[in-house]
Amino acid sequence: MRTCLVVDDSRVIRKVARKILEELDFECVEAADGSEALDACRKQMPDAILLDWNMPVMNGLDFVKALRREEGGDKPVVVFCTTENDMAHITEALRAGADEYVMKPFDGEIIESKLQQTGLLRAS
Fold it and tell me: Partners of 31 in the beta sheet?
């Protein structure tokens, strides 16, 4: 089964994302910030990471930069999922190593579509 790490400081967002991902047959792990997420990746590298930008301790941008330096950190598909929607933020995220970018609020259709674009999911 494919795995996804959901990284967001909002428990509600993590719960909503988890429900969507589990319906897409992902096994989910959650982290409340980038530091927790990095620890989780060091234990078990996921297939995908749904990542918030603005979080305490370590933000999403710092996390993705650190992830890509880890052994096997080039493998997970990283989808930023954030309220930061200007072109400068999107460009910065993609340059740092993100694969896709989703604006909050999101729904299952958007997440499924982005994961299909990355090749992680097949179109149904």
Answer: 7
Cβ burial, residue 47 (10 Å; 0-12/13-18/19+): middle
Q: Give the three-class secondary structure for 51.
A: strand
121 located within any domain: no
Number of domains, the chain: 1
Note the pTM of the prediction, 2 decimals: 0.94
Counting every residue written for the chain, the total comes to 124
Q: Nearest-CA neighbor of 53 among 41, 65, 40?
A: 65
Q: Give the C-alpha separation, 65 to 68, whole Å.
A: 5
Q: What is the mean pLDDT of the chain?
A: 93
Secondary element (H or E) of residue 80: strand 77-82
Print the domain residue range for 30.
Answer: 1-41
Is residue 92 in some structural domain? no
